[in-house]
Amino acid sequence: MTELSLEDATLWYDSRGDGTPLVFIHGGWQNGRAWTPQVERFDTTHRPITLDVRGHGNTGATDADEYSIDLFTDDLEALLDHLGLEAPVLCGLSLGSMVVQNYLDRHPDRAAGAILGGAVRSMPPVELPPGTKPLLSPMPALAASLSMSGPEATFRSMLTSIQAVTGRRWLSIDPEVRATTMEAVGEVDSAEYRKIFDALYRFDPPSLTHVETPTLVVHGDQEAPPVKRQGREIAAEVDDGACLELSESGHLVNQDRPSAFNEAAETFLEERARL
């Protein structure tokens, strides 16, 4: 991996291959390795680039007192500028999908395309009455859980709550994918975990009606229904959007069904190349 020095952080990223750049942004409490099936598929035909978002993976803790999707998007812009990428295809998973949406809002026609896996617009993925979200913040309970149990137990508790509400396997249907994900969560410091969650919770999703970037939203059939609904909203808002659901897969759809996800991504990329 390679380092990019920022004013208050050192961002770790990896770049392979040549051709059209595919920039992958992982989900919360994961790291760039979450995109391994896609990097291995496209590194001979494209230029896959992964990064470890602040607080995650090799980038780890940074000096910022708090995180936000805006800050993560600033970092993405800095990386694209550093690499001289003017028209990349952006691929975001979960938290990464928020970063891509934010980037598209800022630059509605700069990216060549966007692929969003497990795409979500807000946390929680349901509308709350205006002005009530700060009052309903789970941050005090989250801080207590992190203090007493640590990141892995806190994350497992969140998964249990989601499964109890939705009746679905949600995160992943593959035990190996779940185990690898938990390993990545275990690498995150408790303070960083809190800052990441806070960034997710405070994100105010932008309208994408002005976005001209072709966008593909991919969800697994075990995804939480409110998240699926938000994914359909994203696809409907952008000027050229499509939504795809893959069977036998959860929130980490690119890892549960890597071949199917890669095939869908390849078709999307081929269509963009013909334009």
TrEMBL record:
InterPro entries (UniProt xref): AB_hydrolase_1, AB_hydrolase_fold, AB_hydrolase_sf
GO molecular function: hydrolase activity
AB hydrolase-1 domain ranges (all copies): 22-264
Gene3D superfamilies on file: alpha/beta hydrolase
Pfam families in UniProt: Abhydrolase_6
GO cellular component: membrane
SUPFAM superfamilies found in the cross-reference section: alpha/beta-Hydrolases (SSF53474)
Keywords annotated in UniProt: Hydrolase
Protein name: Alpha/beta hydrolase fold protein
UniProt lineage: Archaea, Methanobacteriati, Methanobacteriota, Stenosarchaea group, Halobacteria
